[in-house]
Amino acid sequence: MAGKVVLHYFNGRGKMESIRWLLTVAEVEFDEIYLTTREQYEKLLSDGALMFQQVPMVEIDGMKLVQTKAILKYIAEKYNLHGKDLKDRVMIDMYSEGIFDLMEMIMILPFQADPKLEAIKSKAKDRYLPVFEKALSGPIYLVGGKLSCADVQLLECTLMLEEKFPEILAEFPNVKAFQGRMTQIPAINRFLLPGSKRKPQPDETYVKTIME
């Protein structure tokens, strides 16, 4: 019998945060082992746990999964958060890929000597948010009338954007209304409360740990 899901990553958001979000929405309990020393990372390498010598790594169902998008797809498929058919799934994947492109721009900000905040804001408003504003002009979810991993990722992304640009959703009322609906889902509501497993914005300690 498979044990509890275990996440191996740094004590911070990064690429693991979307996995935490999705497991939370699927109401899956998980433990975390934080990498704080290079020796821990090297042990994972020597144990053969990291296929491409990278984290995140997630232990689930007797497997050690790597590569963020592969992990998210597995969780989404397992917990019915990846659409009802092939056409739904490809739409979900397209939305998710776009969301990740935008989130990765925000994720790397703490590691940049000269962060290009205005460039991110401009791309968010011109390239990404209009897509979701249109998609949510009638439906309450992005694809197929039901909750999917793309919805969870869009919520995470909009919250990240608002941390940097508090008024950015003012021109996107459908996205803002979607955000409001999503935060009323009990599991999400709990995740947004203090003391949950959601991580704060990256700080100097997080950046220093990763660099070392």
Automatic annotation (TrEMBL):
Among SUPFAM superfamilies, the record links this protein to:
GST C-terminal domain-like (SSF47616), Thioredoxin-like (SSF52833)
Q: What taxonomic ancestry is recorded?
A: Eukaryota, Metazoa, Chordata, Craniata, Vertebrata
Query: What Enzyme Commission number(s) appear in the record?
Result: 2.5.1.18
**Keyword annotations from UniProtKB, A to Z:** Transferase
What name has this protein been given in UniProt? glutathione transferase
The organism encoding this protein is Etheostoma spectabile
Q: Which family does it belong to?
A: Belongs to the GST superfamily. Alpha family.
PANTHER family associated with the record: GLUTATHIONE S-TRANSFERASE (PTHR11571), GLUTATHIONE TRANSFERASE (PTHR11571:SF230)
- The segment(s) forming the GST C-terminal domain are 85-203
